[in-house]
Design brief:
It comes from Aegilops tauschii subsp. strangulata. This is Cytochrome c domain-containing protein. It is found in: Membrane. By secondary structure, this protein is mainly alpha-helical. It has a single domain (4-45, 52-114, 156-242), classed as Cytochrome c-like domain (Cytochrome Bc1 Complex, Chain D, domain 2), CATH 1.10.760. 32% of the residues lie in helices and 5% in strands. It has a two-stranded antiparallel ribbon.
Length: 248
């Protein structure tokens, strides 16, 4: 697992290799994510102390806090955070692929923005079958999706989602970076933070060790790795790359 400095350097390298290159304009604000279609439904503490006892006490408190709330995520140099910066539409398109091919089987996405032309979005919508009705005979029927439809949900309800995931409930990813402390830094750290548990740490069966997740044990297994997706634009799909501008 790369150190925080190593990941930061990798981020800078990837961002230099893939500058914003799309001239597509969006009629709707991009709410997050590297991966979004056009469906409309769709800290650092500084402590001055005297004596070793104070330092030891702080160390104990910090360790307990990390165990409860998760390891604090590093801050990364996201290129879209500048005053005059904007999102890279090509990167958003790649993220859409990541969501569709890796995340959509468990996570819903209800609130989204636009990163495609209207014709492209219509074509993607038409690939989805939507249950509609009733018709004149009182029967429900399926039809191709259209722009006014929501992205399909992976489960019919919360109970079905928990049953399929060992009791865990996969959250909707629409506002995940706004709903989590340290936002996009947390999401990147979590997705790339899986590792073997340290000596003395026991993880219950069915859970996975990730120091960035509160409590250190998460039900979601490691999902992203080198080659997890094959980008349509030929961008090398390394683990760090597929986690970069994800769900912003």
């Amino acid at each position: 697992m790369a150190t925080g400095r190593g990941i930061s350097q990798l981020l800078k390298k990837v961002f230099r290799q893939h500058p914003s290159g799309s001239s597509l304009l969006s009629s709707t604000r991009i709410y997050h994510g590297e991966g979004i279609t056009g469906f409309t439904g769709l800290k650092a503490l500084a402590i001055l102390g005297v004596g070793a006892s104070g330092l030891l006490s702080f160390g104990t408190i910090a360790s307990a806090d990390e165990a409860e709330h998760g390891l604090e995520s590093p801050s990364y140099p996201w290129p879209h955070e500048g005053i005059l910066s904007s999102y890279d539409h090509a990167s958003i398109r790649r993220g859409h692929q990541v969501y569709q091919q890796v995340c959509a089987s468990c996570h819903s996405m209800s609130l989204v923005g636009v990163a495609y032309t209207e014709e492209e979005t219509k074509a993607m919508a038409a690939e989805i079958e939507v249950v509609d009705g009733p018709n004149d005979e009182g029967e429900m029927f399926t039809r191709p999706g259209k722009l006014s439809d929501r992205l399909p949900q992976p489960y019919a309800n919360e109970q079905a989602a928990r049953f399929s995931n060992g009791g865990a409930y996969p959250p909707d990813l629409s506002l995940i970076t706004k709903a989590r402390h340290n936002g996009q830094n947390y999401v990147f750290s979590l997705l790339t933070g899986y590792r073997d548990p340290p000596a003395g740490v026991s993880i219950r069966e069915g859970l996975h060790y990730n120091p960035y997740f509160p409590g250190g044990a998460i039900a979601m297994p490691k999902m992203l790795s080198d080659g997890a997706v094959e980008y349509e634009d030929g961008t090398p799909a390394t683990e760090a790359q597929v986690s970069l501008t994800f769900l912003l």
